[in-house]
Amino acid sequence: MSRSSDEDRDLVSRCLAGHRKAAEMLVRRFSDLVYRSVQHTLAAKHVPFSRADVEDLHSTIFLRLFEHGCRKLRQYEGRNGCSLASWVRMIAVRTVLDHLREKGVDALSRRQMKVPLERLPELAGDLGGPEAAVERGERERMVQMGVENLPPRDRLFLKLHFEEGLLIAEVAETMRLSLDHAYTIKHRAIQRLKAIVASMPSPAS
Questions:
Q1: Which residue in 124, 163, 172, 179 is deepest, having the highest Cβ count within 10 Å?
Q2: 117-198: what fold?
Q3: Where does the pLDDT of residue 29 fall: very low under 50, low under 70, confident under 90, or very high at 90 and above?
């Protein structure tokens, strides 16, 4: 176990034991991360927000961590390389998403944030380029064929994230992954898809 993991577990243990200074340390340590997570999630959902909105959600997130005998903190296990920072970030994102669902804005914002796989900048250079003049339908066909050749976990990840429009944190929760691992899977899946598409015969040839 790494030193940072030991420190994470020690901090959580002291919070669970009711040590006030430990709770204050946790808030100071992750305050900026929670602010960034709140703003990023609201922006990703295309929801306008004020400084007061961010402050209220910031407070709500830490209350959620400490309420009911620190129930949320008790759920932290540090498995699969999940750091305490990743756990707090996930709780922050889920709290914001719950808040948006209660306000009834989740469905609309989710539709707005979807990005078709074939439009990803990472794939643009492998879809024929301007000289090949690949039509939109052909791009979609190539990408879909590439997706079908990916491992099952990669296919599921891309479906949830791009087709269903879930945030990375939501995909991580659905697939029972740490947030860090989810970002790694996303990167590797796109790189594999890029290699597969690049190996396909050019439709212009």
A1: 172
A2: Butyryl-CoA Dehydrogenase, subunit A; domain 3 (1.20.140)
A3: very high
